[in-house]
Amino acid sequence: MPEPIDAARLDLVLANRILAREGIVDAFGHVSVRDPRNRERFIMAWARAPELIEDADLLEFGLDGELRQQTDRVPYLERYIHAAVYEQRPDVMAVCHNHTLSILPFSISKTVRLRPVVHTGAVLGGEVPVWNIADEFGDRTNMLVVNLAQGRSLARTLGKGRVALMRGHGSVVAGVTIPAVVSACINMDKNARVQLQAEQLGEYTPLAPGEIERPAVAPGEAPLPDRAWEAFVRRVSDRA
Amino acid sequence: MPEPIDAARLDLVLANRILAREGIVDAFGHVSVRDPRNRERFIMAWARAPELIEDADLLEFGLDGELRQQTDRVPYLERYIHAAVYEQRPDVMAVCHNHTLSILPFSISKTVRLRPVVHTGAVLGGEVPVWNIADEFGDRTNMLVVNLAQGRSLARTLGKGRVALMRGHGSVVAGVTIPAVVSACINMDKNARVQLQAEQLGEYTPLAPGEIERPAVAPGEAPLPDRAWEAFVRRVSDRA
Amino acid sequence: MPEPIDAARLDLVLANRILAREGIVDAFGHVSVRDPRNRERFIMAWARAPELIEDADLLEFGLDGELRQQTDRVPYLERYIHAAVYEQRPDVMAVCHNHTLSILPFSISKTVRLRPVVHTGAVLGGEVPVWNIADEFGDRTNMLVVNLAQGRSLARTLGKGRVALMRGHGSVVAGVTIPAVVSACINMDKNARVQLQAEQLGEYTPLAPGEIERPAVAPGEAPLPDRAWEAFVRRVSDRA
Amino acid sequence: MPEPIDAARLDLVLANRILAREGIVDAFGHVSVRDPRNRERFIMAWARAPELIEDADLLEFGLDGELRQQTDRVPYLERYIHAAVYEQRPDVMAVCHNHTLSILPFSISKTVRLRPVVHTGAVLGGEVPVWNIADEFGDRTNMLVVNLAQGRSLARTLGKGRVALMRGHGSVVAGVTIPAVVSACINMDKNARVQLQAEQLGEYTPLAPGEIERPAVAPGEAPLPDRAWEAFVRRVSDRA
Question: Model-level pTM?
């Protein structure tokens, strides 16, 4: 039985590769996990493309976004996204920042908000809030979240939700486990693809509030095994 | 010469992998076959991603959707879709439930119905009916078909057809053989992709009623060998 | 130095696999070549998916569309497309029939004709004619070209051009060599994809008549080696 | 430590394969590098598909676009694109010409200009200029840049920018290093895909001028290691 920290590190390495394979991240984007041993720490790779991440690439950070170990590896510039979400959200144990193409049109649209339109999109929680860095930090930034003030601003927009969009940039996705965050990213992507096409057809019926809130398992029931995680892991593990 | 039950089980395993490879199902979605030995039974995998299904994953169900064998494997929550279709449709020998992305915009559109626009889409039969779970079960469900009442409601919408959409969820596809259901799913997907793009160009000519009803073989002719099935099987069998 | 017939058969096998790999054909669709030894014959596979075609699958046909050899293999139902084009077009040495998805919206649109919008789309020759089987054969067909009368009707619509669309069905593409037909199919597909997206942006500039007619090589120049064919062949030949 | 010329040649071979794998070029399109030993020379492959390029395929050219070595290999017809850009732009060390599908609708649109809408699209610099060969050379060309006069005309449209579109043809992308040009191509493609979809949703917010100009690193900072290049190289190097 692996120690929680070892299981977390293994799942984090897998999540990096899965998110790359599933098209959620490309050479950019990152995923992290809160340290199961210490709530004031989180674990994330150094600034390397997710598809290449191995255990030796993982680093430890504090909730100020700064390294807690010696290394000459360069950390992701936008680690403050993760730091601020862990700081503001005690319930969150994993975070992904990505530039998933399907949600970007919704991040810049003046008229249409990304929202649940298919049952697996319920994770979006409702209309997905859009954080516009220019609101607090002006319109001469490079749009990256490069300090804790910007990270906290984004975390305020995320609020208690699972997902927030970042105008002209990407999204942040939070969850209680790594598999939950990975699935939330993939379901966000599918929902966005469907919604964009539905917009092209005209008026459409989104999910009703009761269809968004209704939990997938009744109270007291054990959560279902994660059918998707097993498949995702297999896809990045198979060798021809 | 394999026994019909062995051929059915083999085709079912292949169908799972084919539907995954062809993008009809992802980690979710399922396909089943009526037991050739007993019309009151159907065979389907336990709640595992279709791309991973092997013969040992197959379970036997009754038309009430409940297991007919001992197992600690968890069955698909939505087995009631299959059970109800087999119950209501004596002609149907195979069923697929999927969340194919291309049909989802049509499942929520208030103005456009999925309908045959290309000759291989004739299998859709005409405007494809949309089952909205909220009509009978209210707008506070999780949109899954989790009991026989809901399954029968969906089967009523399917009626005598090959395909029904499920609002904001997916589709159910029924057929007389496993290869027929697999091809119907793939042709449904292609038709939907074309129709969505045709909508973007403006007015278009769908198939005429006579072009939908006209059978592919004249009465008395032997059905053509299934060119597509051989290719689909090869694609999931080849090793580099 | 291979005999022309052997080179033709080899290129035909390669073309089948290339057209499948490049997404022009799926399990359906076919490609043929006029017999270099006898203008009254053409060579095409039996009714098997193009991605699986090998030399042993090739059959010989006359320009009436009927077999000229003994076999228990079933030929493609729509061989009459090829027969009629070879009959009507002495300049044509290779023909492809396909259901390429990108051109199908244009085959049913009432308002937009597929036409050259990018330089590689010049092969389309201008607005691409659409053959509607219902015009001559009524609206109760299965839309397949199953006899020589239908094939000749389609060939009349093709006229002297390289491409004709078939309403709600697909296209026929003709050329002077197999590589030319393969490239024409792929360029037709790319042009269609671009044109559909350009339509979504609003008004756009198509190719001018002089940009369509202008040959790629000046008179007297040797034609350029086919850069694309080498790449296409390599893609279906490489083993990991 | 490899000589600069060897490093340049190696990166050029890799760039060819990367641009092919990433869908920026297909069998057509090309990339070059200015010779680090001689600013009046550039290096590019002969007229072969980028995915097949090896070191032995590389040739040397002068800024007049003509070969500087003996060979019976045929050079790319459009080498004058590269020659003219190197001639007009002393700062440019690498150039790519491509027919990337996503930018082609913008190259022919009468109403919409490609422009930065996502942060990685800042490399576009603003509204991307469109070079229309017909403006200077009439509407009876084959639209290819086949001499230095046409190349210089295109280079004038490119001006001091990183990217220019070529109406109904493709784009030219310039940069200070090969990895920079490769990333610029890929980011141009992603921006175009997002912008096309955003157009379908209605009005949207593009990047502000200050968000385009703001450099990714503050003055005095060392540039960040190229996370993407490592991933791109690995993708074309892995063998199953």
Answer: 0.97
